[in-house]
Specification:
With 141 residues, this protein is mainly α. The protein is 79% helix and 0% strand. It has one domain. The N and C termini lie close together (12 Å).
C-alpha cells in the first residue's frame, strides 16, 4: 500500500485528539506546556488539511481568508472577474471560525479548560470513522 496523505489522515486526527485531551490537565495545573501542545494540535490540523486537500487553505486561522476576501472585493469593485468558489470558501471558513469562537467562549464559561475535550472528542471520532471508512474501502478493492 503506497503512502497517501488520505491514508494517514485518521492517524493525524487521532494525534490531534490526544494532544488536545492531554492539554486539558496541563492547563488546569497551570503548566505552560499545555499552550505548546494545543499549538501543536493546531499546526497538525493545518498540515493535515493542506496535505489532504492539496491546497493552501488553513483551518485554524483566518487572517489569510480576510486578505483573500479583501482582494476579491477589490477585484469586484474594479470589474475584474472573481473566483466565486474561492470567495464562498473564504466566507464559509470565516463564518465557521466566528461561530466556533462564540461557541468556544460560551463553553469555556461553563467548563473552563475542559472545553477542549469537545474538539478532542470530535477529532477522535472523526479519526475512528475515517479509519473504518478506509479499512472498508480497502477490503472492497
Amino acid at each position: 500500500m503506497a503512502f497517501s496523505p488520505k491514508r494517514v489522515a485518521s492517524v493525524a486526527l487521532f494525534l490531534e485528539s490526544v494532544m488536545l485531551a492531554i492539554t486539558v490537565p496541563l492547563l488546569e495545573h497551570h503548566q505552560g506546556y499545555g499552550i505548546y501542545l494545543a499549538s501543536c494540535a493546531c499546526g497538525l490540523q493545518n498540515a493535515m488539511a493542506s496535505a489532504y486537500s492539496g491546497s493552501a487553505v488553513r483551518t485554524t486561522h483566518v487572517s489569510g481568508m480576510f486578505t483573500d476576501l479583501g482582494i476579491y472585493l477589490g477585484h469586484a469593485l474594479r470589474g475584474i472577474p472573481v473566483d466565486m468558489r474561492r470567495l464562498r470558501l473564504s466566507f464559509t471558513i470565516i463564518s465557521a471560525f466566528i461561530c466556533g469562537g462564540i461557541a468556544g467562549t460560551v463553553a469555556f464559561q461553563h467548563w473552563a479548560y475542559a472545553t477542549l475535550y469537545i474538539p478532542a472528542m470530535l477529532t477522535g471520532s472523526g479519526a475512528l470513522i475515517y479509519a473504518l471508512y478506509i479499512f472498508r474501502k480497502s477490503r472492497h478493492l
